[in-house]
Each structure stands twice: as structure tokens, then as C-alpha cells.
Amino acid sequence: MSGGAPLPAECERLAAGLRELKDRTGLSLAALGQRTSYSKSSWERCLKGRQLPPRQAVEALCRLAGEPPERLLALWQLAETAWSGRAGSAPPARETAREPGREPALRQVRAEAPTRTRPKRVYVLSGAGALVAAVVLLPVLLSGTGQDAEVRDSRSAAAEQLSEPGCRGQGCDGANAYDMGCGAQGMVVTLLKQRASDGQRLEIRYAERCGAVWARAMGLHLGDRVELRLPGAGTKAVTAASRRETETYVSTPMTVTGDPNRAEVCLVPAAGGRQECFGRV
């Protein structure tokens, strides 16, 4: 992955789809870099729409999210077509692997046999070629939300098989659930959801394969403190210390337990006043 000028709209749409998958995995950028062949900074650039990811990176993220890759690969193909044509005959270098000498050979085939069906179908670059790609790939894109029931029902199972956690048992105690992959879809269950009196959203989450529980919160005010309490296991806490942390989810470190139903989540408001605690028992 390499830097470059802002990408075409097709690449922005691909980046949005990748961000959705990344959020589904529950992995941080650092954890994503550890679990794939691409660095944290490379993922950051791709997810922000600043460059085109390699096809293999798209496939890797689909595997981690338990997502059948066809829809995202169709988006990637359109983005690749737009990227290839944006600089005329000299597109910028990127990490998508190509065989040495392959491109000149393809151009020669198109020049010598413009009426042959196979080269036209496979080697589209820009202009009318982009339209052909869109027509060919549109049914795949439109079917993204209409996949058959068997594929939809298999997503959670696929995520569970492919997203091996980075810790288990005592090795998870005090660790970040998302860095360890314990918060990935198909692995985590939400035991409790509550809204505090001032609107803050509080959750208790549990990953059986990690053997650990943690609290997650969103909509906090600056300085609000969220605590996960478990009898005999002490307290784990997180504080909204920046504006960004008031606009996204924050999570406490994990607590290892064999009985997650005994956990409770408490909000300690920065403005003072009484604490609010919620639990299942």
C-alpha cells in the first residue's frame, strides 16, 4: 500500500464498505495490522479512502468479519477500474501484484485484435471499459443484501472459526477486548444494555472463547467514568478523557470470569451526583 492523490468515488465507496467490516470485527487498527499482512498505517490510509487496498487485503478483512467476499470484491473491481484510468497510461504504483511484463502484453493484444471478445471482457481500463465493468458487476453489488439464507446464517459461524482470539483465560485479564479480537462478531455476546438517566449508553459484553467480560459505553460526557464490577475480581474502569472518546465507544479492560452474569456496569458522572449501576442479577 502506498500513498497518493485522493481516490475516485468508486474507491470511496469501497473504503466505506471496508470501514463497516472493520467495525464488525471489533478490531483496532493495531490489532488488524497484527492479524493480516498489512500494517496499521496502511489500513488507516485505506479505510480513510486515501488509497486503493490490494485485493488480498479486501479478502483478508472479509475473512476476519465472516463476510462472503463477493460484494466487496465487486466494489474493489470497480474501484480498481477507476484507479487504473485516473492517470491515463501511467497509473501510480501500488501493492497489487502483477506479473512482470504483463501490462504491455495486454495492450498489444487489444491493439492487434480489437474485435476479440475475451480480451475486451477481461482487460477493461477506463471510459467505455468502466461502463462494461459496471454493467457486469452491478448484479453482484445489488445482491449484497439479498444473499440466500444459507450464506447469511453461516456468517457468525465463519467469523467464529476465522477470528481466533489473541488471548484466552487469565491471559485476557486486564487486556483490551478489541486488540485481542475478543470483540469480533460471532465471538461476543451483549449480556446487558442500559441507558443512564443523562443518556449515556452502557453495555456488558462477554466472549466465551476468551473467558472474559468487559463494559462498553457510548455517549459519555468528558470525564465520565465507567466501571465494570465483579464480586471477587475487583473493578476495571475507563474514563472519557478526550472529546473523541465522548463520540465513540470506549471499553474497560477485560475481567476473566466463569460467571459473567454476576458482573455489573456503573457510571460515575463527571458532574457529580449519584452513581448509576446496572446488572443482570
UniProtKB/TrEMBL annotation:
InterPro entries named among the record's database cross-references: Cro/C1-type_HTH, DUF2690, Lambda_DNA-bd_dom_sf
Region annotated Disordered, chain positions: 85-113
Domain of life: Bacteria
Pfam families with a match to the protein in the record: DUF2690 (PF10901), HTH_31 (PF13560)
Compositional bias of kind Basic and acidic residues: 95-113
Alphabetized SUPFAM superfamilies for the sequence: lambda repressor-like DNA-binding domains (SSF47413)
Protein name: XRE family transcriptional regulator
Species, as recorded: Streptomyces luteosporeus
Phylogenetic classification of the source organism: Bacteria, Bacillati, Actinomycetota, Actinomycetes, Kitasatosporales
